[in-house]
């Protein structure tokens, strides 16, 4: 095996007694729920601050219990099931959307695997479990959650929810490919798919520094995967009334909202694990404090990083407007996927050169040469393309556009022009036509007639 491949030692997992496993599972569930309750209030506070408003300030100190009050209100509201819905799928869809959102946190490390903590006298790791293919498990769980949204839109028996479900499905397909390529870059560089091993490999340098393109790609795709603004097309109230959850109310509607915010926490935790050093203390702290990455302190650094990424979600929502659906698809298929594939090939090349014991200077030289070759080829292609465009014959004039060709008025497409609006007849002309007088066709004839009458 190459010395650059990580040695996965997962022997510390799977030794906990059943009651300790239950305690850790309950902790993971409570962590997600409390983070969601805080994130909802924090989002409303931050957006209100950005828009010069007050925000929630009635329930609890500083309005911190507002999300809890909203949850209680949703549970007590009347539960309505629409008449045309497929009742079994209609009821199961929120459950299918919510449960996978909680499952990914099982393999996220809150602390170092080698530094075990004591809980009721038992030494255990600050992680529920780990797998040699933990990141593939996260991808699989995230992909299952989208079925809840698609089934909710289909089972409602309404047009707008169906369109929202289809949008969510197309959005997931578009952004899951680029997300997988960003993950693959981390796999190649760390030599492992285990989350604890990936964090261990960032002991000297975080992957946000080594793999900045992968980090940027994942940041964009995680916003698209969670259907958050500016990519919240599946629940666009401007053209879909409410999207896939239009026909839902009470606790089922609350489960969709819960799944959205839990997914936000999950993707933030994954981003922290892959690119931000996971539970490791930031650079200034780790240099002068040796105990920063021991004991319970790693959990604090992990939570701070997750909260910063959640603030990024809120910042986007309060700053950027919703994009159009064609812009969403163009970004996914024409920008993110090509960039992620090219970057993946580059990372694989660098990894192969390092495994062959080439030093960093040679690697940098090869990368610079490849970039220059690509720039040169693109310059040559642009030159020949401009010459070909100049040699083309001028295009024929487009056919006239008839806005009433389909029986109802439609706006012109790009490149089309509306026909000129006919000149409105003057009052004198209309009087002459009604009275049986001569129908004049020009201002000159009308002026001549008036002059002769005078």
From TrEMBL:
Pfam families: NADHdh. Its EC number is 7.1.1.-. Residues 440-454 have a biased composition (Basic and acidic residues). The keyword Oxidoreductase applies. It is a multi-pass membrane protein. Residues 409-421 have a biased composition (Pro residues). Keywords: Cell membrane, Membrane, NAD, Oxidoreductase, Quinone, Translocase, Transmembrane, Transmembrane helix, Ubiquinone. The chain crosses the membrane at residues 18-42, 88-111, 131-154, 175-194, 206-224, 261-279, 299-319, 331-351, 363-384. Residues 394-454 are annotated as: Disordered. PROSITE patterns: COMPLEX1_ND1_1, COMPLEX1_ND1_2. The keyword Transcription does not apply. GO terms for molecular function: NADH dehydrogenase (quinone) (non-electrogenic) activity. It catalyses: a quinone + NADH + 5 H(+)(in) = a quinol + NAD(+) + 4 H(+)(out). It is found in: Cell membrane; Membrane. NDH-1 shuttles electrons from NADH, via FMN and iron-sulfur (Fe-S) centers, to quinones in the respiratory chain. The immediate electron acceptor for the enzyme in this species is believed to be ubiquinone. Couples the redox reaction to proton translocation (for every two electrons transferred, four hydrogen ions are translocated across the cytoplasmic membrane), and thus conserves the redox energy in a proton gradient. This subunit may bind ubiquinone. NDH-1 is composed of 14 different subunits. Subunits NuoA, H, J, K, L, M, N constitute the membrane sector of the complex. Belongs to the complex I subunit 1 family. This is NADH-quinone oxidoreductase subunit H. The lineage of its organism: Bacteria, Bacillati, Actinomycetota, Actinomycetes, Kitasatosporales. The gene is nuoH.
């Amino acid at each position: 095996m190459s010395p650059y491949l990580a040695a996965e030692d997962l022997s510390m997992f799977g030794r906990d007694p059943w009651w300790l496993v239950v305690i850790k599972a309950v902790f993971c569930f409570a962590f997600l729920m409390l983070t969601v309750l805080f994130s909802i209030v924090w989002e409303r506070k931050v957006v209100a601050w950005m828009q010069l408003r007050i925000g929630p300030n009635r329930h609890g100190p500083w309005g911190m219990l507002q999300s809890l009050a909203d949850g209680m209100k949703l549970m007590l509201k009347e539960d309505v099931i629409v008449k045309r819905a497929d009742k079994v799928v209609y009821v199961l869809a929120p459950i299918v959307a919510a449960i996978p959102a909680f499952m990914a946190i099982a393999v996220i490390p809150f602390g170092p695997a080698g530094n075990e903590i004591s809980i009721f006298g038992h030494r255990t790791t600050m992680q529920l479990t780990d797998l040699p293919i933990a990141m593939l498990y996260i991808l699989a769980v995230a992909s299952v959650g989208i079925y809840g949204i698609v089934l909710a839109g289909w089972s409602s028996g309404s047009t707008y929810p169906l369109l929202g479900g289809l949008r969510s499905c197309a959005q997931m397909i578009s952004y899951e490919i680029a997300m997988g390529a960003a993950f693959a870059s981390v796999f190649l560089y760390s030599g492992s798919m285990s989350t604890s091993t990936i964090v261990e490999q960032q002991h000297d340098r975080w992957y946000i520094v080594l793999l900045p393109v992968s980090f940027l790609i994942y940041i964009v795709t995680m916003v698209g995967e969670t259907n958050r603004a500016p990519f919240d097309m599946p629940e666009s109230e401007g053209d879909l009334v409410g999207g896939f959850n239009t026909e839902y109310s009470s606790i089922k509607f609350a489960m969709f909202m819960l799944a959205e915010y839990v997914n936000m926490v999950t993707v933030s935790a994954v981003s922290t694990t892959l690119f931000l050093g996971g539970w490791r203390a930031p650079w200034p702290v780790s240099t002068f404090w040796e105990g920063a990455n021991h004991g319970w302190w790693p959990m604090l650094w992990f939570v701070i990083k997750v909260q910063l990424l959640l603030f990024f979600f809120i910042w986007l929502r309060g700053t950027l407007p919703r994009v159009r659906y064609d812009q969403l698809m163009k970004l996914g298929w024409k920008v993110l996927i090509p960039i992620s594939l090219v970057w993946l090939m580059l990372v694989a090349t660098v990894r192969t050169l390092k495994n062959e014991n080439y030093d960093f200077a040679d690697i940098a030289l090869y990368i610079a040469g490849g970039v220059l070759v690509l720039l040169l080829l693109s310059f040559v292609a642009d030159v020949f393309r401009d010459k070909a465009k100049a040699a083309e014959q001028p295009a024929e004039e487009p056919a006239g556009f008839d806005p009433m060709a389909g029986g109802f008025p439609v706006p012109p497409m790009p490149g089309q022009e509306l026909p000129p609006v006919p000149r409105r007849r003057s009052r004198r002309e209309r009087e002459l036509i009604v009275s049986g007088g001569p129908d004049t066709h020009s201002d000159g004839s009308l002026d001549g007639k008036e002059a002769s009458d005078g």
